[in-house]
Amino acid sequence: TAITITEQPVSVSVPVGYSFTLRCRAQGRSSLQYQWFCQYQSDCRLIPGATNQDLPIIAEQTQLYTCRVNDLHRNAVFSDWVKVEVHQCVARGLPPRLWQGEPVIVLNPQEQRVEVGQPLQLQCAAMGVPAPSYQWYRNGNLLEQQKRKKLRITHTRVSDSGTYLCCASNSHGEHWSNAVDVHIGWCLFGKVQAPWAASSGLMLCKIALLVGNNRYQHHPNLMAPVRDVFELRHLLEHLGFQVVSLLD
């Protein structure tokens, strides 16, 4: 209680090479001293010379930062840990030249086709100062529990099908991702999309059934059905088929 932090640093999400400043302010009963620390992966270290209230940074890699504040009586407190997320690959023209820190989408979700019961993951990412918060929607309806960059559904149902999009927002405004369709359905045998599949919640997957018969009652044994099935199985799996192989 001898030291109170009055302004916490805030997390940011910026392109590589971007210059900005982390700020920390505190009040105490005597003069205060500041020291900044950073953490990359599991390595936490003091930043030499970072003893001011403000910490200038040129974004190079994603790291965590905190500031220690102490007084002359050996009282000390730490600020919140904040994340500086650095986007290494950003499309040309992003952020805009006169960027003020408003959210800018740098990664849009992609259309998905998922079998019932399998996991679904959609991803969105945005730059912003402060770092944006995220909210996902399906068919225009807010998904209360989906508030992270990655939307995850462990076991999908047909009812999870729909059009998804994500809103990234901070104190400067909001930006919406592209809308993408997600198809959840049962897997049918076949190669050609049936016209009724989309409306009935059914999907056609590439499935191959291989049968290697060698024990014929009225025919000589074949040369190598077991080897043929083995080699065909690996070839078809490489082409994206689900393979069921049977012998005799």
TrEMBL record:
Keyword Transcription set for record: no
Gene Ontology MF terms: cysteine-type endopeptidase activity
Location of the Ig-like domain: 3-79, 103-183
InterPro entries for this protein: Caspase-like_dom_sf, Caspase-related_regulators, Ig-like_dom, Ig-like_dom_sf, Ig-like_fold, Ig_sub, Ig_sub2, Pept_C14_caspase
Domain Caspase family p20 stretches: 206-248
NAD listed as a keyword: no
UniProt keyword terms in alphabetical order: Disulfide bond, Immunoglobulin domain
Gene3D superfamilies: 3.40.50.1460, Immunoglobulins
GO BP, one annotated term: proteolysis
Domain of life: Eukaryota
Record protein name field: MALT1 protein
Source organism: Cardinalis cardinalis (Northern cardinal)
The organism's taxonomic lineage, starting at the top: Eukaryota, Metazoa, Chordata, Craniata, Vertebrata
